[in-house]
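=== RUN LOG ===
request id: a7f3
mode: sequence -> structure
chains: 1
length: 187
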Amino acid sequence: MQTTSKFKAAAFAAVTAMGTFAIATTAPVAAHHHTTAKAQPNIVETAQSTGVHNTLVAAVTAADLAGTLASSGPFTVFAPTDTAFAKLPAGTVDTLLKPENKGTLTNVLVYHAVAGSVSSTDLLALINKHGGSATIDTLGGQKLTARLSGDTIVITDAQGRSTAVTQADVNTSNGVIHVTDGVFLPA
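=== RESULT ===
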């Protein structure tokens, strides 16, 4: 019996020593494998990375709004896709992108932006609070109307055009993007 006790004690000592050795030698190696959390991109960087907002990014750049939308904000941007811009009458985008139309382009773009970070949950709460539709003030000084159609948030612009939010709550470092299937046109 005494041999068994010595064996158990020796085995325990060996396991303990190996565990301590493993911890001691692993810690320095693990310390060199730190990964730094990548900073969350801002609204402009996020739009640039999607592959479906090339027209929007070109428009924001042409209107000299990239710096503003990359600032601390926060902003909420209803971001039309390239397909949404393609639904506009032929030549509209090319005309808007001309330097002489920068003012008009800026008006269209700021009509897609709201001060603050407004999530879809916030929009739904506003819609419910106001009996089924909510008015949203844009940075352009005009209003949009939000309502529900089934489970989809639909935004109506000043010209009565309805646009669906196809992807909500794309969070960025300086706000939130809601992807839309249409372009809002101010009055």
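=== NOTES ===
Residues 2-31 form the longest helix (30 residues).
The longest strand covers residues 162-172.
=== END ===
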